[in-house]
Specification:
The chain has about 425 residues and is an alpha/beta fold. It has two domains: about 240 residues, Alpha/Beta hydrolase fold, catalytic domain (Rossmann fold); about 90 residues, Serine Threonine Protein Phosphatase 5, Tetratricopeptide repeat, CATH 1.25.40.10. The chain contains 14 helices and nine strands. The protein has a nine-stranded mixed β-sheet, with helices on both faces. A hairpin with a 4-residue loop joins strand 2 and strand 3. Helix 6 packs parallel to helix 7 and helix 9 packs antiparallel against helix 10. It is elongated and about 95 Å long. The protein starts with a strand and ends in a 12-residue tail after the last helix.
Length: about 425
Amino acid sequence: MSSRAWRIVAAVLLAGSGLSSSVPGRTQDERATQAAEPIVVGERWQVSSLALGQDREVLVRLPADYSRSRQHYPVLFVLDGNYHFVYTAGMLEFLARNARVPDMILVAVPTLQRRVLDLSPPFMPGVELTEKEQPFQAPQLSTGGAPQFLRFLADELAPWVDARYRTQPYRILSGHSLGGLFSFYALMERPDAFQAHVAVSPSLWWNQNVWVEQARQRLGALPGRHWLYFSWGDDESWIRDSSQALVDWMRKQDLPGLSWKSRYYAGDDHGTTPLRTLYDGLEWLYAGWRLDLHEPEKMTYADLQQRIREHHDGLSQRYGYRVDPGPQVRKQLSAWLFERERYDEALEEARANLDAHPEAKDLYRHISDILDKQGRAVEALAAYRQALPDTNEYESIWQIEHRLHELERKAAGLDANGATPSP
């Protein structure tokens, strides 16, 4: 399967950030223009599809530390990617940074001219079209291509992503409107393809609500374990009525293979439900992902190790792949040792953490603090300098420079006043 890629960028001006050019003789506007640099959001690929008989555009966003890490990541597939790619990329970075969800790979699939064809299931034979469905039968709006599009996603695109990137065997599918209907369709037709679904304002009214009836017949017999979050908002009566009818039925059923939640977003309409639904749906899917250790300083080291191990064993069982503690979780082990002045053990744990997570450059700052306490000032300075390219965004330049100068003074053998101590 052939493919071609381009980077997706957004240009920004860095005027006033301290990064603008200082070439003499230029005006401020000229210096700002010289400082413009692209911010890379992701990559645009062309992927050949036998199922669809054409090349399809695919947008990919990788976690910020992907190139430096050795981790494997779950994958979020988003339909109508031409609309939802950029804000979803930012949302994922925000949620992962706050440990609400794991870092994940985003794969957005634009639909554009083929949208109705790709996302609509075939009309059921013998089911008369309603007035609102008849326009979709116009010659210029072909319908019923969901089986082929699902084959493209499940049998071509997903393996292409797995072969090109470091992925976990965990896939999430998100779709809006007809894309939300397609997400339901994929869950019922190919439950092996995706483990979780976010269906935003799904068009379950399609084909005279036949997919509400299909859901009633098939959601109780799903193999394995699946997650489904779906929504609707104001001013979408067709979607509200069909979704509510399904919810009323689901509340009375035992659905052993499905964990689900629905939500009505008052004040949102068909155009604004996607962002809120995807944000809330991901938080719901990963509820409990963040490990909250209450007063770890009151635990023993063995208690802390056990709590971390049990938490991640539970996550691994829930999501079906091995979930290991991230660098910030594991850092709590070396921090516990550091606070009790067990510096040798703290350093060993911190270095093992960095070996496992080379992308976590801020660990060098922690290692520097340990080395400083051990009186190894030259090594502490070297470690701190390795952390500087990834400075903490909440730490001021003054704090960084102050700490750097302090370590430089110690490494040079000077006292707090900058003088050589008396023998």
